Write the structure tokens for this entry.
Amino acid sequence: MSKRIQAEIERLREEINRHNHLYYVEARPEISDLEFDRLLKQLEELEREHPEFDSPDSPTHKVGGEPVEGFASVVHRAPMLSIDNVYDEAGVREFDVRLRKLLDPEARVEYVVEFKVDGVAVALVYEAGVLVQAVTRGDGRQGDDITHNARTLLGVPLKLRGKKPPARLEVRGEAFISNSDFAHLRARQVAAGDPPFANPRNATAGALKLLDPKECAARRVRFFAHSAGVVEGVDYESHRQFLTAIAERGIPVTPKVQVFADIDAALAYCQGLMEQMHELDFEVDGFVLKVNSFAQRLQAGATSKFPRWVIAYKFERYEAVTQIENIDVHVGKTGSLNPVAHLKPVEIAGTTVSRASLHNDDELKRLGVKIGDWAVVEKAGKIIPHVVRVEEHRRDGSEREFHFPESCPECRTPVVKDEGGVYIRCPNPSCPAQLRESVRFFASRAAMDIEGLGIKLIEQLVEQGLVQSFADIYRLQGRRDELINLERMGEKSVDNLLEGIAASKARPLWRLLTGLNIRHVGTRTAQILADHFGTLDEILAQTPEQLSDVDEIGPVIATSVHAYFASDIGRRIVAELRELGLNFGEPVARKQPTGKLVGKTLVVTGTLTQFTREQIQELIHEHGGKPAGSVSKKTDYVVAGENAGSKLDKAQQLGVPVLTEAEFLKLISDESAA
């Protein structure tokens, strides 16, 4: 009987931990909050009835234990140093130059780019896979023991997933309160007659210093890992390998982390992330660029204050509180319906702001925005103003719900939601709003850079029926007299426009790919495709699988590119632009892939003894294979080192062949071919 009860308790703990991970780390819950609460209640009742089976790493203890009397001071086994800051690209490039002087002249330096989360620095210590201690940064040399509160951090496992955990694993990161949770927290404070917190960071810092962990749990503090402290029992070659390993163990890591081969690619990624800032439900004040290789970090060393291998690329953030007077919807270049908040004018960073993008219906629901709400509006760096959170505590009942339209506000076509996506779109390709926006983007500096073709002129051209497609822009060269008759268009303006149109025909292929408005294809992706394939015809000849074999082109992008050019509209656009003489690129010289791994996908996991992760991936490339980050039915081999985790388990479940390093070397050797 007791064994059966113990087994049921262990089953419930495992299931609850899995659902916690899905909800807080992977953001893909499988069950409702009500179903989760029922599971937790079952476990609580069993543990109460059978205290002999209680365990400190049970998920029931994440809601808080008994209050502590005070905070003990803990000396960090390795200092938690600060990071040096810069505020522009020039500062980042100067950091790159300084760093290279410290390393081998011929060394290739890979950079990791991460969000700089504006939270409270915390170190979590696991011994034999169990959370045993949590310490604040303090003065960098010693901090406060906050283990009682860290056990309540949402998403943080009390016990690591997987087998054979490291003897000691110290993970450093940021504790924070999400913007949406902060809005609810302030509303509860005002309802209780308490003064509301000033900002999420202060609320987080205060939560971690509470003596009663139940009070900390009520503030819903979360954690993202971004660095390694003192680790024993396992060796990591690179930061990417470390993050992958701890994520497999169930520890939440900072999202959207990527590794880049040089500083140019890293900076380009930073600019792309700036445009995604509105998607974040947590405070960010910049990016962190750090050397990927741990060996190179040791070589670079540190000053008394800062490591020399990392830099914070910060941007100024400016906020203001104002009222949302109305919300309307604009139709974008791909047919997406984009809600816009009309604000009571407010000055932010010396500019009067009266509008802010709300991006999509999911964003509206996440923020809980109503017409009449007071909201925090932020302008950071060069991005357009966006709503950070609603001031729920200021609501007086006069606010009105906003209902997303069921038909396109421009052409009245019933709208549809992307399958598996967040955007609601007008599916009518002839929608005048889509046409205006797509032509505006095609002519913009980011794409074909057509001088003189601004939005006011585009509106006239579309309204007069002179432009109904991209090709019609180039047909304007034979309609000079009609252009002169348009409002505010004299002979000189028309001649300048026609010269700009003619000049754009010679623009490089990547600009044309950018301007076509293919979903998921921005400037960076367009450059990668143009550089790799050389000509548009070569891109047209590829299958989705062949497109996704290109570095940085995943299956979503590949499917989108292939579908666009295979569609009737895509084929018509290509045919018309070809006839009009646009630049479709130049062939590139390319060797056919050779080697034992041509057409094979390999996943590497665990700690390797003969290679770094980067070295073995280069070997896979050299022999014609494709390294991948996750195991699926399409994986041909998994190369497993020591302490391989969930990827090895999944490979065994799927029946994917597993190789040791020696077996991998044999596979790619000349002897194996014989």
Notes: The radius of gyration is 28 Å.
